[in-house]
Amino acid sequence: MICLCSASESRAYLLEKFGIEFEQKSVDFNEDQIVTDVAKDFVYLASKGKLQAAEKRYGSDIPLLTADSVIATAEGEILRKPKNREDARRILSLQSGSCISIISSVHFKTKAFLFTNTSATHYHFAKFDVDDLEAYLESELWQGKAGGCMVEGFCKKYIKSVDGYESTAMGLQVEALLPWIEWVKQ
Ligand SMILES: Nc1nc2c(ncn2[C@H]2C[C@H](O)[C@@H](COP(=O)(O)OP(=O)(O)OP(=O)(O)O)O2)c(=O)[nH]1
Protein backbone atom coordinates (compact mmCIF):
# COMPACT_ATOMS: atom_id res chain seq x y z
CA MET A 1 0.00 0.00 0.00
CA ILE A 2 1.25 3.51 -0.81
CA CYS A 3 -0.14 6.96 -0.03
CA LEU A 4 -0.88 9.19 -3.02
CA CYS A 5 -0.45 12.58 -1.38
CA SER A 6 -2.47 14.47 -3.96
CA ALA A 7 -5.99 15.73 -4.56
CA SER A 8 -5.63 14.87 -8.24
CA GLU A 9 -8.35 12.70 -9.79
CA SER A 10 -6.08 12.18 -12.79
CA ARG A 11 -3.28 10.72 -10.68
CA ALA A 12 -5.70 8.45 -8.82
CA TYR A 13 -7.09 7.28 -12.18
CA LEU A 14 -3.59 6.45 -13.43
CA LEU A 15 -2.67 4.41 -10.33
CA GLU A 16 -5.99 2.52 -10.59
CA LYS A 17 -5.40 1.93 -14.32
CA PHE A 18 -2.04 0.30 -13.51
CA GLY A 19 -3.56 -1.79 -10.71
CA ILE A 20 -1.59 -0.10 -7.93
CA GLU A 21 -3.07 -0.28 -4.44
CA PHE A 22 -3.08 3.13 -2.79
CA GLU A 23 -4.80 5.43 -0.36
CA GLN A 24 -5.26 9.07 -1.33
CA LYS A 25 -4.76 12.03 0.98
CA SER A 26 -4.45 15.67 0.01
CA VAL A 27 -1.45 17.81 0.90
CA ASP A 28 -1.19 21.57 1.30
CA PHE A 29 1.74 23.23 -0.43
CA ASN A 30 1.67 26.75 -1.84
CA GLU A 31 3.30 26.56 -5.28
CA ASP A 32 3.27 30.36 -5.51
CA GLN A 33 6.32 30.42 -3.22
CA ILE A 34 8.43 28.78 -5.94
CA VAL A 35 10.66 31.32 -7.66
CA THR A 36 11.81 29.95 -11.00
CA ASP A 37 10.70 30.36 -14.60
CA VAL A 38 12.22 27.02 -15.61
CA ALA A 39 9.37 24.51 -15.93
CA LYS A 40 11.36 21.38 -15.01
CA ASP A 41 12.71 23.11 -11.89
CA PHE A 42 9.23 24.36 -10.96
CA VAL A 43 7.65 20.91 -11.00
CA TYR A 44 10.64 19.36 -9.17
CA LEU A 45 10.50 21.95 -6.39
CA ALA A 46 6.70 21.72 -6.18
CA SER A 47 6.75 17.93 -5.97
CA LYS A 48 9.54 18.06 -3.39
CA GLY A 49 7.66 20.67 -1.34
CA LYS A 50 4.53 18.52 -1.42
CA LEU A 51 6.58 15.54 -0.15
CA GLN A 52 8.00 17.56 2.74
CA ALA A 53 4.50 18.75 3.65
CA ALA A 54 3.19 15.18 3.41
CA GLU A 55 5.95 13.83 5.68
CA LYS A 56 5.16 16.46 8.30
CA ARG A 57 1.44 15.71 8.16
CA TYR A 58 1.36 11.93 7.68
CA GLY A 59 4.75 10.67 8.85
CA SER A 60 6.78 8.14 6.88
CA ASP A 61 5.39 4.78 8.03
CA ILE A 62 3.71 4.38 4.62
CA PRO A 63 5.45 5.12 1.29
CA LEU A 64 4.55 8.62 0.16
CA LEU A 65 4.01 9.65 -3.46
CA THR A 66 3.77 13.27 -4.59
CA ALA A 67 3.80 14.88 -8.02
CA ASP A 68 3.45 18.14 -9.88
CA SER A 69 2.76 18.94 -13.52
CA VAL A 70 2.88 22.04 -15.70
CA ILE A 71 2.83 22.80 -19.40
CA ALA A 72 5.77 24.59 -21.01
CA THR A 73 5.11 26.40 -24.29
CA ALA A 74 7.70 26.46 -27.10
CA GLU A 75 8.62 29.94 -25.81
CA GLY A 76 9.21 28.51 -22.32
CA GLU A 77 6.14 30.03 -20.67
CA ILE A 78 4.89 27.91 -17.75
CA LEU A 79 1.15 27.18 -17.94
CA ARG A 80 -0.42 26.05 -14.66
CA LYS A 81 -4.04 25.31 -13.79
CA PRO A 82 -6.39 27.95 -15.22
CA LYS A 83 -7.75 30.43 -12.67
CA ASN A 84 -11.09 30.83 -14.49
CA ARG A 85 -12.75 30.31 -17.87
CA GLU A 86 -11.13 33.41 -19.40
CA ASP A 87 -7.70 32.24 -18.23
CA ALA A 88 -8.46 28.77 -19.62
CA ARG A 89 -9.35 30.31 -23.01
CA ARG A 90 -6.07 32.28 -23.02
CA ILE A 91 -3.95 29.30 -21.96
CA LEU A 92 -5.58 26.86 -24.39
CA SER A 93 -5.31 29.36 -27.27
CA LEU A 94 -1.54 29.45 -26.66
CA GLN A 95 -1.49 25.66 -27.24
CA SER A 96 -3.66 25.72 -30.37
CA GLY A 97 -1.53 24.97 -33.46
CA SER A 98 1.59 24.83 -31.28
CA CYS A 99 4.23 22.56 -29.81
CA ILE A 100 4.09 22.16 -26.03
CA SER A 101 5.65 19.95 -23.37
CA ILE A 102 3.78 18.59 -20.36
CA ILE A 103 6.32 18.12 -17.60
CA SER A 104 5.68 16.02 -14.50
CA SER A 105 7.92 15.47 -11.50
CA VAL A 106 7.36 12.74 -8.92
CA HIS A 107 8.81 12.06 -5.48
CA PHE A 108 8.31 8.57 -4.05
CA LYS A 109 9.73 8.07 -0.56
CA THR A 110 9.90 4.89 1.49
CA LYS A 111 11.92 3.97 4.58
CA ALA A 112 14.54 2.45 2.24
CA PHE A 113 14.81 4.95 -0.59
CA LEU A 114 13.74 8.20 -2.24
CA PHE A 115 12.92 7.98 -5.94
CA THR A 116 12.52 11.16 -7.95
CA ASN A 117 11.87 11.54 -11.67
CA THR A 118 11.08 14.48 -13.88
CA SER A 119 9.77 13.61 -17.34
CA ALA A 120 8.20 15.43 -20.26
CA THR A 121 5.81 14.45 -23.01
CA HIS A 122 6.00 16.64 -26.11
CA TYR A 123 2.96 17.39 -28.29
CA HIS A 124 2.40 19.18 -31.56
CA PHE A 125 -1.26 20.21 -31.71
CA ALA A 126 -3.22 21.23 -34.79
CA LYS A 127 -5.25 24.44 -34.44
CA PHE A 128 -8.20 23.93 -32.11
CA ASP A 129 -11.62 24.38 -33.73
CA VAL A 130 -13.12 27.56 -32.21
CA ASP A 131 -16.58 26.06 -31.58
CA ASP A 132 -15.03 22.88 -30.16
CA LEU A 133 -12.87 24.97 -27.81
CA GLU A 134 -15.91 26.96 -26.65
CA ALA A 135 -17.80 23.73 -25.96
CA TYR A 136 -14.81 22.43 -23.97
CA LEU A 137 -14.67 25.67 -21.98
CA GLU A 138 -18.42 25.34 -21.31
CA SER A 139 -17.87 21.76 -20.05
CA GLU A 140 -15.52 23.01 -17.31
CA LEU A 141 -13.50 19.78 -17.74
CA TRP A 142 -10.41 22.02 -17.99
CA GLN A 143 -10.68 22.86 -14.31
CA GLY A 144 -7.87 21.50 -12.13
CA LYS A 145 -5.71 20.53 -15.10
CA ALA A 146 -2.33 22.00 -15.98
CA GLY A 147 -2.83 24.26 -18.97
CA GLY A 148 -6.50 23.25 -19.00
CA CYS A 149 -5.26 20.36 -21.11
CA MET A 150 -6.79 16.89 -21.50
CA VAL A 151 -4.58 14.84 -23.79
CA GLU A 152 -6.96 11.91 -23.45
CA GLY A 153 -9.97 14.13 -24.04
CA PHE A 154 -10.38 17.51 -25.75
CA CYS A 155 -6.79 17.66 -27.07
CA LYS A 156 -6.68 14.07 -28.38
CA LYS A 157 -8.18 14.80 -31.83
CA TYR A 158 -5.70 17.64 -32.38
CA ILE A 159 -2.53 15.64 -31.68
CA LYS A 160 -0.30 15.79 -34.78
CA SER A 161 2.67 14.22 -33.02
CA VAL A 162 3.56 12.99 -29.54
CA ASP A 163 6.83 11.99 -27.93
CA GLY A 164 6.62 10.46 -24.47
CA TYR A 165 4.19 8.71 -22.16
CA GLU A 166 0.53 9.78 -21.97
CA SER A 167 0.70 9.09 -18.22
CA THR A 168 3.39 11.75 -17.81
CA ALA A 169 1.13 14.19 -19.64
CA MET A 170 -1.80 13.28 -17.39
CA GLY A 171 0.26 14.04 -14.28
CA LEU A 172 2.09 10.86 -13.17
CA GLN A 173 4.76 8.89 -15.05
CA VAL A 174 3.59 5.53 -13.68
CA GLU A 175 5.81 3.54 -16.05
CA ALA A 176 8.90 5.05 -14.42
CA LEU A 177 7.47 4.44 -10.94
CA LEU A 178 6.38 0.83 -11.45
CA PRO A 179 9.71 -0.93 -10.65
CA TRP A 180 9.98 1.04 -7.40
CA ILE A 181 6.38 0.33 -6.42
CA GLU A 182 6.98 -3.37 -7.14
CA TRP A 183 10.11 -3.23 -4.92
CA VAL A 184 8.02 -1.92 -2.04
CA LYS A 185 5.59 -4.84 -2.40
CA GLN A 186 8.40 -7.40 -1.80
N1 LIG B 1 -6.95 14.13 -17.04
C1 LIG B 1 -5.88 14.92 -17.29
N2 LIG B 1 -5.30 15.59 -16.25
C2 LIG B 1 -4.23 16.35 -16.53
C3 LIG B 1 -3.71 16.49 -17.83
N3 LIG B 1 -2.62 17.34 -17.75
C4 LIG B 1 -2.49 17.71 -16.46
N4 LIG B 1 -3.44 17.10 -15.73
C5 LIG B 1 -3.70 17.27 -14.28
C6 LIG B 1 -2.80 16.48 -13.36
C7 LIG B 1 -2.89 17.28 -12.10
O1 LIG B 1 -4.03 16.90 -11.37
C8 LIG B 1 -3.08 18.72 -12.60
C9 LIG B 1 -1.82 19.55 -12.46
O2 LIG B 1 -1.87 20.24 -11.26
P1 LIG B 1 -0.91 19.90 -10.01
O3 LIG B 1 0.29 19.15 -10.47
O4 LIG B 1 -0.73 21.16 -9.26
O5 LIG B 1 -1.74 18.85 -9.15
P2 LIG B 1 -3.15 19.07 -8.46
O6 LIG B 1 -3.29 20.45 -7.95
O7 LIG B 1 -4.21 18.56 -9.38
O8 LIG B 1 -3.10 18.04 -7.26
P3 LIG B 1 -2.02 18.00 -6.07
O9 LIG B 1 -1.25 19.31 -6.08
O10 LIG B 1 -1.15 16.83 -6.37
O11 LIG B 1 -2.87 17.81 -4.84
O12 LIG B 1 -3.41 18.62 -13.98
C10 LIG B 1 -4.34 15.77 -18.90
O13 LIG B 1 -3.96 15.84 -20.08
N5 LIG B 1 -5.41 15.00 -18.58
Automatic annotation (TrEMBL):
Cofactors that this protein relies on: a divalent metal cation
GO cellular component entries: cytoplasm
Catalysis: reaction(s): a 2'-deoxyribonucleoside 5'-triphosphate + H2O = a 2'-deoxyribonucleoside 5'-phosphate + diphosphate + H(+); a ribonucleoside 5'-triphosphate + H2O = a ribonucleoside 5'-phosphate + diphosphate + H(+)
EC numbers on record: 3.6.1.9
Molecular-function GO terms, alphabetical: nucleoside triphosphate diphosphatase activity
Record localization: Cytoplasm
Top-level taxon of origin: Bacteria
Positions annotated as active site in the UniProt record: 68
Hydrolase recorded as keyword: yes
KW Hydrolase (keyword) present: yes
Name of a matching Pfam family: Maf
One Gene Ontology biological process: nucleotide metabolic process
Keywords recorded for this protein, A-Z: Cytoplasm, Hydrolase, Nucleotide metabolism
Gene3D superfamilies for the chain: 3.90.950.10
HAMAP family assigned to the protein according to its UniProt record, in alphabetical order: Maf
Family affiliation: Belongs to the Maf family.
Function statement: Nucleoside triphosphate pyrophosphatase. May have a dual role in cell division arrest and in preventing the incorporation of modified nucleotides into cellular nucleic acids.
Protein's UniProt name: Nucleoside triphosphate pyrophosphatase
Organism field: Sulfurovum lithotrophicum
